[in-house]
User: What shape does this take?
Amino acid sequence: MMMRKDLALTRPKKWNSAYAFLTPYLIVFFTFIVLLIIISAILSLTYFDTINFPTLIGFRNFARLFTQDSDFMQYALPTTIRYALIIGPVGYLISFLMAWLLAQLTHKVRTIIAIILYSPSLTSGVLMSVIWKVVFSGDQRGYLNYFLLNLGFINEPVQWLQNTHFIFGIMVFVGIWSSMSVGFLAMLSGILNVNKDLYEAAYVDGMKSKWQEIFYITIPSMKPQMLFGAVMALVGTFNAAGMATALSGSFPPPQMAGWLVVDHMNDYGFARYEMGYASAISVVLLVIVLTFNRIATRLFGERGE
Amino acid sequence: MMVLVLSLGMLLLAGSTRLAFIHAEPLPDASETTVSSSYFRNQNYYRVLSSWQQSASRVSLDEVRIPLVDQIAVNPDTVFETDTDGYGSQVAVLSKGSSIEYHVSVSETGLYEVGFDFIVVSDFYTVPLVRFEVNGAPLFNEASSMELGVAWEVVPLAEADRYNRYGNELLPGSISVREWNKYYFDDYNNQTSGNYVFLLEAGSNTLSFTAINLAIKLGDLYLKGTEEVADYATYRNQTQGLESHSDGEIITIQGEAFIEKSDLEIKSSYYKESAMTPYAYRHSVLNQLDGSSMSRGGSEVKYQFTVDKTGYYQLAFKNLQPSNPGIAVGKRIMIDGELLFSELDEVLFPTAKKWNIMTIGEDEGYWFYLTEGEHTLSFASTLSHLTPMMNQLYTIMDQINDIGLRVQTITGGNPDDALDWNLLKYLPNLKQDLLLYADQCEAIYEEINSLDTGLSSSPQTSTLLVASKQLRRLARTPNKLGSRLMEFSEGSGSSYQLIGNAIGAMMNQPLSIDAFYFYNNVALPRPTGSFFVKLWHGIKAFFYSFFDTRYNQRDVGENTLEVWVGQSSLYLDIIQSMIDREFTRDTGIEVKCSILSDASKIILSNATQDNPDVVLSLDTWVPYAYALRGMLEDLSAYPDFQEVASHYVANHFTTLIHGDGVYGIPETQSMYLLYYRLDILNYLNLSVPDTWEDVISMLPMLQSHRMNFFHPLGGDAAFKGYGTTTPMIYQFGGEIYTEDGIQTTLKEPITVEAIKFMTDLFTIHNLPLQVSSFFEHFRSGSIPIGISTVDLFLQLKYAAPELSGQWGVSVIPGIKNNQDQVNRDAPAYGKASILFANSHLKAEGWELIKWWNQTETQIEFMQNIKTNLGEKFLVVSANMDALEASVWEEEIKQPMLAQAIHARTPAVTPGSYIVERELSNIWNKVVIDLMNPSVAINESIPRITRELNRKFEEFGYKSSTNPNGKDYIVPLDRNITRWIWGDDDA
Assistant: This one.
């Protein structure tokens, strides 16, 4: 911020051209993000059945969300936080670990493996569950059941995707499998961009192991990428939706197992035609994500500037 | 070690006691040819005929006429008529299901052909079927349902109607040919050549005819011996040296120009290739006889052509056969309705991946003597060159199936590889049999190859080689068969199915024809265009595509009715052209149809007031949400609503009712049907269950063979919707909601009992909890009986040809009520038409909805689907009169009609989704978590009550939180007529 102010003072003409360059982005950002957030915030104060014109009802939606909606407080919110707290850190750590391991390889091998690791996050949730559905199918010919039956561990097929005790675990498993997304690529490039001189200098100064290399050189040198990865991981996990539905083939999933906030929002918006209420949920979700983002920034952000 | 041996012995013992329990009689030897599971196939004509030919011979008898008038006395119950459609003497009228007997006496025992005069009473859309019995029983399978030889005349469209709005040529119409026809029973599948023959004993015989699906009138009966058709050499000699003044002549007949067809599905189509006649690069024009549409044995088309000069002609076909490579296609060719010489009974066309011209006949080709004037040429698909091989393969399959079932009986279906069974003790010839089958498969493969000169190897039947390889591998360790049934008789890679796949390919005789030529001493045209001509047409077509109006959204005029259709573009083309050709012509209302890919588009368009006037084919549970929020027009307020509704089962409307109004007209319906494997039920000595009690009592036998019963609750998805959870509740006599809708009746004793019964099926009786594909399990025999929708019928018919004749369909099992009637109620969801309240063309919209759902239109729609797209794409009309007269095959139509009247669908109310969800949760809790049903229901009730109250209050209805609200009435089975027929007393 300081930098820019200095620039502005010394060379006022650059000011205008900077904004000219920014305009396209600002327009897009405003129309597709800011405007929608504002509309959603306004809608959250209304009763809107998606067909008739919305009517203003004040904060009744929020009151109901926190006082009467047991599905939200009992299932959606705790499951989402649990899911985010598992997938976020675990996925993040695995992403970093994989990125670091890949960085040790030669260029060609690295590119190929990076694509392989990255591709699960590209494949849409539906495709994922097509793969995993076959593996976890409750049919005796589902891969896992077939395998276990053959080995004699079980006597009859287990209903992996209908049993409420398994659904969340499978969801987490699939979530981790697909968690190596953009954040992972950013970290990979971050690691590769660390100045090699630093390592040499550190070895001269008496660094003894790879661990020290990671903690004293690699991580501090790639803080921006670490932050980006953390933010992406958080936003991704909080915005996850429909996984339990896709896996179990049930909307809502049996006994609300694996029911996430965004699922809850979709349910009210598109199945129950209560857009105002769904908007209220989205506002709450926005607040939650922003809070966790603050925490992430605290953890990984540049301090003192 | 000792323990292992002991336990093995015990297991063997257990196996053999189970064996004794199942078969009261000792097991027959496996090498015996009569196997119980293939009882049905053993009675087919081909096999029956072979056995007759060993004892009886064909008689030489000229046609004998047995007049109907002599039979009147012996048929006191039959209706006779003098109004005869021009027959002359009296005729018998056989309404659907009634029969007539002819008493005839013959002087010698032998094989006779049977013919008769008949006419179908009214216009028809399906082939009339007759059950023909000799002395009280059909002599072979086919005789229990004989297709009579009828035809549909192709009616060219008026010039103005010939092209659709995009300039593409439309298929011509077809009407049934209704005229007296002297018809000899012939092999309607063309699996054997010539007419059917029947074994009649010397002396008096009773021949009886029963009309199965259509009313027919019968006249006199004819008997004759088989006439031998002379061969070509004889024909050539007979026609040698006749008057001829034709030289250098060519008569071209276009393949698409047939005037009659034996099956509605036969059609012409467009092939894009510049040497086709006719050809246009801009639009599609009909220029070939579509080979795939007449690939079924017995399909026949008829052409008319004029010969200008009497003389000798050769016959050549410009044909294409790329889709069944390696299998020569057989066709029977008749001129003026007569088989001129025996070779024409089965003309083989080799595989042709490019258009080519083939002159029929060996070496110099056949010379036909044609006189000046009009002639006809009929062209029929025939399988007779493949039938012996197919029958041999069927025999192998039946034996494989039988051995598989026996092995399962012996091992109790235990697939454990570590157990050592001594199968050879029970099936001593197992090894030799397997090797024999392998040899036979290879020999048949070679034989099929040798018939087709177009290709050196036959990819379509190469599965036979794989099957034979597998059989040889299995033969190495025959005792291990029990754990390797997947390779043998079960599942998609088994030898059984591999052979079945080959048979499936052999049944198809596709041959596309651009044109055929009668010619003499003249060069025929080139079959394909030259490279440069093709290139030039390609360039033109490419540039034209930029100006093709089809893909440019045309503006919808002020007075054009805008219609969205929730169907794929295949159906849309048919719907739009039917509307253009009939509705717009008759009413003058312009209509523009577009595809509705996603129902949520309706909401979005409504937000901008951009919505269409009418939506067709929308899922029936969707409109309620729109009606509740005031988007839709109440159709019951229109004066002729009741006339429209009179064609439906009242319960079809349930989900479309809100308040006092009915907001849609059902278009299609779906229903559950029971599918069963005849061969397996027969083998296990089980009968088709009528009630759930019957189902439960057959389960121990099925499960002892590691088989099971499929209920849709055991489907793939964890969500058990109303479609699967409510049938049992309704069958027990329960309900889902109270009449005021604010409560659910789930905790009423009768409902609790129903839910308990439904969950017991899975927890106590061990029905499979998740079956990812019932079709595959059914096909492999691991689940030989179960409930599914009409789709399975089409799937089995087209994707599992190896099972043909081995399975059946009926209404679903039910629960017997106090009056001793079986209650089979189950939901019937489908698609519906709706009209928008904000449309400014409401009257026109209602006209369209009315026209679209009326009986004639729906019959024609199904007929058009069958002709344009094929049977695989048929829909099940909700209009019961249309369904009854539709082109659906009789064997599925009857169960459909019988089940449709049991339609009973839970209503949609504000918040009804919560009941559906909780019902699914109850199921999940009871079956997966093994909770007590009553406890599970009690847990759900508060959640349901809360949501229902909230939703009722939202819309101003009376609820516990809103006691002064409006009354709500839920449409139930007992009060539904109030909305549909306007009865106020209900």
